[in-house]
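Entry 0007
Protein: Tf2-1-like SH3-like domain-containing protein
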Amino acid sequence: MSPFQVVYELLPRGPLDLLSLPSKVRNHATAAEFVEQLSHVHRTTHDRLVASTAAYKVAADRHRCAVDFKVGDFVWAILTKDRFPARDYSMLASKKLGPVEIVEKINPNAYRLRLPGHVRTSDVFNVKHLIPFSEESSSDEDNGGTDSRANLFDPGENDGDVEDVHN
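Output (structure tokens):
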């Protein structure tokens, strides 16, 4: 139904209706019938909106997972582009900060973190930008899991430490 039909319970006249001469005679219902038809349209519209909202909620909930952190837990914080000043943002800079401690739970979706002094951004993060910290994930990163300078051919070396042999 169109919004006009929901409010006035009749279809508006369109351009094609204006081609022929409109009829001067309209069948009008009594006021009680009009109110009953209008309330039926409103009930139908309300039911459809509730069903549509429920369908959207089911689709959105498929992608959500409940994560609950406690004060004192350590997490990885993901820094998004909007958290950097325009001149400081670099696509090559590390986006994952941590492990950082949770200082306060503001609500189920927002947490206040204890950030290092060099980070110049708000200390409140949405839960979607937080990853639980575990010792296993820390040891993986220490072994060169995310180090872009790690030498893949000789795991104990770092390409930044090796002198250039061509000089």
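Curator remark: The helical segments are 3-8, 31-61, 135-142. The two ends are 77 Å apart (CA to CA).
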